[in-house]
Amino acid sequence: MPEQIDEVLLSEKIIQSRVAEMGRTLTQDYADSDLVIVGVLRGCFVFLADLIRHLDIPLEVETIAVMSYGDATKSSGHVRTMMDLQKDIQGRDVLVVEDVVDTGRTITYLLKTLAQRGPKSLRVCTLLDKPSRREVPVDPDYTGFEIPDRFVVGYGLDFAQKYRNLPYIGILREPLSFDDSQIALPLSLQGEAETPADAASEAKVEDSE
Predict the structure, then answer these.
(1) Alpha-carbon span 37 to 92, nearest angstrom
(2) Catalytic residue annotation
(3) DSSP 3-state assignment of 187?
(4) CATH no. for 5-189
(5) Helix H segments across the chain?
(6) What residue ranges in the chain does DSSP mark as E strands?
(7) Most exposed: 31, 62, 184, 189, by fewest CB within 10 Å?
(8) How far is CA 119 from CA 32, 116, 168, 183, 192, in A?
(9) What burial class does residue 138 get, using C-beta atoms within 10 Å of its C-beta: 0-12 exposed, 13-18 middle, 19+ buried?
(10) What is the chain's pLDDT, residue by residue, as a tens digit (209 residues)?
(11) Cis-peptide, bond into residue 148, ω within 30° of zero
(12) Strand partners, 129
């Protein structure tokens, strides 16, 4: 385990077991549906890849990326789309897949944006949820784990582009350091900004929130 990891919050075994369980639930809920899964880049990619292999139903996968602007310690909450979907979702069942739902600002932006395109249904599936960090009222339809307000990495989640390849989810040791080059990076290129509200909080503003 890297020395920067303070502790393992969720082991590989626990994650894989829960992802398989979520896959079974989604298979039942979306049976006979015209399903499009929308992955929020970049942090969801490991979760997304594992999840869809547990869905025993026809589906299509799309990806979207958004950016949120702010300073090194806090996102402004202003979000815009950086990479859009390639296909029309009108009349289709859409499931947005996130790695973390944090403040809720980015997922709220995405839901409003996608709802304007006329999907038959629109739901959210997230691996991690931090309800204590919520700034806008939004509740995921499917949640893998509810976690405390700690800065976590691994299983696709990063800090300064590191630790995505860890098979588990760990708590990053503090204090964290960063430079000005990490300010105002694409917030959702990891997923939903899972940064804590302290010093390194949204330094890697490159995840959705």
Answers:
(1) 10
(2) 102
(3) helix
(4) 3.40.50.2020
(5) 12-29, 45-52, 105-115
(6) 5-10, 35-40, 60-70, 75-83, 93-101, 121-129, 142-146, 152-153, 169-172
(7) 31
(8) 16, 8, 34, 35, 22
(9) middle
(10) 888 999 999 999 999 999 999 999 999 999 999 999 999 998 999 999 999 999 999 999 999 998 875 543 344 567 888 898 999 999 999 999 999 999 999 999 999 999 999 999 999 999 999 999 999 999 999 999 999 999 999 999 999 899 999 999 999 987 555 443 222 333 333 344 444 333 333 333 344 45
(11) no
(12) 101, 146
Residue 73: which residues within 8 A CB-CB, separation 6 or more? 198, 199, 200, 201, 202, 203
**Claim: this prediction has a pTM higher than 0.70:** yes
Work out the number of other CB atoms within 10 angstroms of the CB of residue 204: 28
Domain boundaries along the sequence of the chain: 5-189
- 136 token code pair: 């806008």
